[in-house]
Amino acid sequence: MGPTRLGTETLRRMLADLRAGADAALGTYLYKGLRIQVSRYGSTGTARTARLYRTRRERGLCVRCGAGVTRKNPSSGKLYRLCEAHRRKIDSVSA
Ligand SMILES: [Zn+2]
User: With CB atoms counted within 10 Å of each terminal CB, which end of the chain scores lower, N or C?
Assistant: First the structure.
């Protein structure tokens, strides 16, 4: 995923998240040709990975590649955690 382009309104929202110290402010942004990188200071790789997994899961994105997941697990009724390509790849490894 590339940087999020900020307009006046999205910049205002991002600054509000930033002021609140919310995880929602984390990310890479582009504003008038300037790149803004917001990351958690002192965060370990493990914490970053856990946060990435959680946000992708909440947004219904593949936890491996961030692609949108469309199919649901019939037994739980929830979206699969992997996209079709990664589900196939992992199924073929375990089969
Ligand atoms: Zn994937």
Answer: C
